[in-house]
Specification:
Largest sheet: 6 strands, antiparallel
Strand content: 25-35%
Cofactor: FAD
CATH class of the largest domain: Alpha Beta
Pfam families: Pyr_redox_2 (PF07992), Pyr_redox_dim (PF02852)
Keywords: Disulfide bond, FAD, Flavoprotein, NAD, Nucleotide-binding, Oxidoreductase, Redox-active center
GO molecular function: dihydrolipoyl dehydrogenase (NADH) activity; flavin adenine dinucleotide binding
Distance between the termini: 59 Å
Number of strands: 23
Protein name: Dihydrolipoyl dehydrogenase
Strand order of the largest sheet: 18-19-22-21-20-23
Shape: globular
CATH topology of the largest domain: FAD/NAD(P)-binding domain
CATH superfamily of the largest domain: FAD/NAD(P)-binding domain
Amino acid sequence: MNTFDVVIIGGGPGGAKAAGILARGGKSVALVESGQMGGVCLNCGCIPTKLLLGATAPKGLLRGLERQRVAKGNIDVDYDALQKRIQRFVKGTSQALVKNLQQLGVTIIEGCAVCTGPAQVTVATADGGSQSLQAGRIILAGGSRSAAFPGMTPDHDAVLDSTDMLRVPAVPESLIVVGAGAIGLEMADFFSAMGSKVTIVEAAPHLAPTEDADVGQELAKLLGKTGITGITGVKATSLKTSNGMAVLALEDGREITAAKALVAVGRTPNTDGLGAQAAGCRLQARGYVAVDQCLMAAPTVYAIGDINGQTLLAHAAEHQGAYVARHILATDTAPYASGPVPSCVYGSLEIMRVGLTAKQALANGGPVEVSKAQLMGNAIAQAGGDAAGFVKVVWRNGALAGIAALGHGVSHLVTAAQLLLLGQYHGEALNSFMFAHPTLDEALHAALEAPREVISA
């Protein structure tokens, strides 16, 4: 049996980050990964999706300039060449990650890990063998996978999950997207830009259901101008392949048919067969690993990233991984504090948010106000040809509680928004914060100083 100070299960952003910090801190570390290093984010999530969207971004810019009658033309994207570029980039980045961790002294094991005790892990290795590992500490960082509802399970024929969709061999003539969260919206944006007739179906009252209604409603209006159809407030009852086509039935009796359908209704944690309970962990109702204020799931076990269900974002997993590594090294003994978590939806139209929505702020109590600035008044937004959208600030008890934005390129505001929120830059404090001109960042300044409207439930 091989003995390590720390055994990490999962080589995604959280596990890889923790491994690097622990190794530099002098700990012996084994990292077990059943797939490709880098996890969902690198291999079949954030990174491939952004490479797709990057290829079609010029189409969105041209569309805006055409509306202003200052430019015209065609941009053709070679889909096959794009897929090959993505494969090369992902493979190279994964290999570089492995090399960097190995140079730090991390032992990387390919295989499926199962906890067999509070300090023991058994690995069914990729070569068909088995290894037993003794660990002073275990970090569960196994991530999540696409979720599905009964009657709407991907069959990998015409009904696909997000991994299937990233690797579909040709652009479908038509596409149904079930679920209007980040994954669904980004896939809809790309395939619409590539020529697919896209219909988004969301059971919630508006698109982007984790955002405030004004964001989702404005998004629907703007997407409609690009040719994407949005259907909201109606549940799907079944989705299946019939005669080679995807057929979606809605509870109001409507039926929609398309060449392909994407099921993008959320994520489920990879805790099946993990043996977390054998390590002393407790699983919550949806299978997420319960953790305490220090992200500990048991006296010798931590759980980070998607698998604990706190925030299903790659940068949240990485942030948690860094914290847990410091906690093991005893350089950070305070409870875990994420701060305001930044989130973005990418594409020709983007959504950015840091902190609370107005709805969340109301739920927390206290007077809530909102101030807004339209991007129409921003020179950089106008220069790009598409100045639709807005920046919105949520105030609670007179303090900054959240900042959100919708529009072209607003993901670039996320770090500035986070710093403004963390520093509570408003009122007189904003006098010490200089905004460059002309920049999209100035829309943040305008929203902070805009008149506030009281919001009620």
